[in-house]
Design brief:
10 strands; single chain; 5-stranded antiparallel β-sheet
């Protein structure tokens, strides 16, 4: 009898020391041994989508030429044949827009500007080398004329005076921040009727148009 009592007491002590008690807060894992991870609300609130940084750094999407031609420019009309997409520095995803006085026929009193997101951001300087009346844009070309890695702009201008029609061509030099032109240098281009001839001349005589 004493031996049985000792064994019973020993079993009670062993059970108490084992600490094995039911845990009402233990998460069930449906028969698997995988731990259940509870979401941290703070981490979830601060979670950044994986593509958020990529979208923030994505290059702006260039407009189509049709979108450039449809830009609202106020009282002036857009000369669609001489309006183009401008998608290089310093004006990425922009438009080269030529406008004219809507009351003239053929289109005269032309003006050239850069538009971005529908807003004018830059007026090209020295348009038609100072001529303000009777001029239109007859051709436009974009290219790196002096091989400095930046695209320049050539504009072929046609003007009318009392003595007859004449050319007012312009080379716009890309300095990385804007386009500049030298009206004195442009004066040697009066005999050229198209952009190819102007570019060929400028490539052979870069010192006239490109100052170091």
């Amino acid at each position: 009898m004493r031996k049985l009592t000792f064994i019973f007491l020993f079993a009670l002590v062993l059970s108490a020391c084992s600490g094995e008690t039911p845990d009402a807060n233990r998460a069930e894992n449906n028969g698997t041994n995988k731990p259940i991870t509870l979401a941290n609300n703070n981490e979830a609130a601060n979670e950044v989508p994986a593509n958020a940084t990529a979208n923030a750094n994505a290059a702006p999407i260039a407009p189509t030429r049709a979108e450039c031609q449809a830009i609202e420019t106020g009282d002036d009309a857009v000369l669609k044949t001489q309006t183009y997409v401008l998608d290089f520095e310093p004006f990425k995803a922009s438009c080269f827009v030529t406008t004219y006085n809507a009351d003239t026929d053929p289109p005269m009193e032309a003006k050239m500007a850069v538009y971005h997101d529908g807003q004018k951001v830059f007026d090209l300087p020295g348009q038609f080398n100072g001529s303000t009346m009777g001029c239109t844009v007859d051709g436009v070309a974009f290219g790196d004329i002096n091989n400095d890695g930046k695209k320049d702009i050539v504009v072929i201008g046609k003007c009318i005076s009392n003595t007859g029609p004449y050319n007012e061509n312009m080379i716009y030099v890309n300095d990385g921040q804007k386009f500049t032109t030298d009206e004195g240098a442009n004066s040697v281009l009066v005999d050229y009727d198209n952009a190819k001839d102007v570019i060929d001349f400028a490539k052979k005589n870069p010192n006239i148009f490109f100052k170091k």
